[in-house]
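2024-03-11 09:14:02 INFO worker-7 job=invfold-0412 stage=load source=structure_tokens
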């Protein structure tokens, strides 16, 4: 076999050495790049960042998502979700969120919030989706959907199912984890629904009337007060606690209180009690003794440090203790 000239052998060795150097450089570059980006990926990709508009939704999300997500709430517990407008710092929460869950059904009707949620591609109106799937779930007042669906635990259980479905689609890697925690939460909700039903039915039917500040307890009444629930729940204000009580509305409530001998009215946490004071004064002027409950009910929020289940149990207990005597 003919021997290659020395110069060709030298060129071959130089080329081989350069290829080895290039290979080492590329491996090193890949390694360094991996080290530099790994922490970023852990923060941004391994956990979904989820923003819920209300603390009631956030309670479900935190439970089902567990340590696989980062859960934040837009509207703090003492603020009214009906009229909330964006404040400084909200833009960071919104832009950072991989998913945004909101109640819908007109609850978040503040202009800036409503416009953003309608345009956002990663926002989900939970109540609107439920109404599409099962229109019979909704209550309408003057052709306007009542957004307070969390007041019926059986409906809120369906919201948990929907949130689970969306989480699994967004992060299928943790689908088994989400599903297991969702099943556990729905069992708790099913038990809670039965406990509340039993608690309320202990109230004599003739005393089972609920007067509150605004129309937030229709779903609660339908679920737990009986088939004639519509006549058993009264409120001087409409679906949002920012309206003015009319003389006609006040007259209607006083007449019903006299007819059914209603002697207790219930204030709501973070809602002005002034309309209830007007009811109390007008009722007493006509000879009806009315007291305002010492304990407020929670309608659009949760107690400080409490969760959804605790709020529902607390409300049922306050209503029971005031009306079952």
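2024-03-11 09:14:09 INFO worker-7 stage=emit residues=325
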């Amino acid at each position: 076999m003919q021997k290659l000239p020395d110069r060709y052998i030298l060129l071959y060795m130089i080329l081989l050495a350069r290829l080895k150097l290039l290979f080492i450089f590329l491996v090193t570059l890949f390694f360094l790049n991996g080290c530099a980006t790994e922490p970023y990926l852990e923060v941004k990709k391994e956990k979904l960042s989820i923003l819920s508009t209300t603390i009631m939704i956030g309670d479900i999300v935190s439970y089902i998502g567990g340590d696989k997500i980062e859960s934040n709430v837009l509207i703090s517990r003492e603020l009214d979700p009906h009229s909330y407008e964006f404040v400084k710092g909200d833009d960071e929460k919104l832009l950072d969120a991989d998913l945004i869950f909101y109640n819908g059904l007109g609850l978040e009707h503040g202009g800036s919030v409503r416009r953003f949620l309608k345009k956002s591609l990663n926002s989900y109106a939970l109540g609107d989706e439920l109404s599409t799937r099962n229109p019979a779930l909704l209550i309408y007042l003057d052709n306007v959907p009542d957004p307070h669906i969390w007041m019926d635990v059986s409906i809120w259980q369906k919201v948990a199912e929907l949130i689970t479905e969306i989480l699994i689609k967004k992060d299928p890697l943790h689908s088994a984890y989400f599903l297991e925690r969702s099943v556990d939460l729905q069992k708790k909700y099913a038990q809670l629904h039965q406990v509340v039903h039993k608690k309320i039915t202990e109230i004599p039917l003739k005393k089972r009337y609920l007067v509150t500040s605004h129309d937030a307890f229709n779903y609660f009444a339908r679920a737990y007060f009986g088939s004639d629930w519509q006549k058993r729940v009264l409120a001087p204000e409409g679906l949002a606690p920012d309206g003015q009580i009319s003389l006609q509305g006040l007259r209607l409530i006083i007449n019903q209180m006299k007819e059914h001998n209603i002697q207790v009215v219930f204030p709501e946490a973070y809602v002005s009690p002034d309309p209830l004071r007007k009811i109390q004064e007008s009722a007493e002027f006509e000879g009806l003794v009315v007291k305002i409950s010492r304990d407020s009910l929670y309608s659009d929020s949760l107690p400080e440090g409490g969760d959804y289940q605790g709020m529902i149990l607390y409300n049922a207990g306050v209503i029971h203790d005031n009306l079952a005597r």
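2024-03-11 09:14:09 INFO worker-7 stage=report msg="The two ends are 113 Å apart (CA to CA)."
2024-03-11 09:14:10 INFO worker-7 job finished
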